[in-house]
Amino acid sequence: MRLTTRGRYAVTALLDLALQTSQQDSAVSLSDIAKRQSISISYLEQLFSKLRKRGLVTSIRGAAGGYHLAKPLDEIDVMSIISAVDESVNAMQCEGRGDCQGGTMCLTHDLWCALSNHIEQYLKNITLAQLLDMENVQSISDRQHLSVAKDISTITLSTSEASPA
Q1: Where do the H-state alpha helices sit in the chain?
Q2: What is the pLDDT of residues 6-62, one digit of tens each?
Q3: For the chain, which has fewer Cβ within 10 Å, the N-terminal or C-terminal residue?
């Protein structure tokens, strides 16, 4: 099984969005998510387009625009996020077709099929609300906020030092 960056980044971005919307009432911009999570804005735009089409996020245009979650935290499971961006958690080399060994089923087909089903069920049973309650999530979020704030203050200082008085 291989979960690409597309699935990982989508889950990370929605968890970031969930954290921000639980702390503030305004929309969250993709540029803010990009800074905190070190994901390019153009990549986030592609992901959020798919997430919006699947009804997981809503967007607001304008100066105060950005994104909100379209459903309550306990109604958005990790598997839905992964599926929304066209990812799979299938551990089977044949992707379930049963043609993994020269056009026929391999000896371990049932093993990988069962593993795929377990992974999918596990991810269906984990919601954004549960992720927010995980042990390290809040401390990592706090560290990311401090890091971004420090970067912004460094840029502001260097810009003001370079400006003629």
Answers
A1: 5-23, 30-37, 41-53, 78-84, 109-124, 128-132, 137-162
A2: 999 999 999 999 999 877 778 999 999 999 999 999 999 999 999 999 999 999 998
A3: C
pLDDT band at residue 156 under the 50/70/90 scheme = low
Q: Which fold has domain 5-141?
A: Arc Repressor Mutant, subunit A (1.10.10)
Q: Which residues have C-beta within 8 Å of that of residue 62, sequence separation ≥ 6?
A: none
Contact 65, 29 (CB under 8 A): yes
CA dist 108 and 87 (Å) reads: 23
Q: How far is CA 38 from CA 9, 35, 101, 118, 153, in A?
A: 10, 5, 40, 30, 18
Are the C-beta atoms of 47 and 10 separated by less than 8 Å? Answer: yes
Instruction: Give the integer Cα–Cα distance in Å for 38 and 96.
Output: 34
Contact 38, 8 (CB under 8 A): no
- pLDDT, tens digit (0-9, with 9 covering 90-100), for 70-111: 999 999 999 999 999 999 888 887 777 778 778 888 898 899
Phi and psi torsions of 127, nearest 5°:
-105, 165
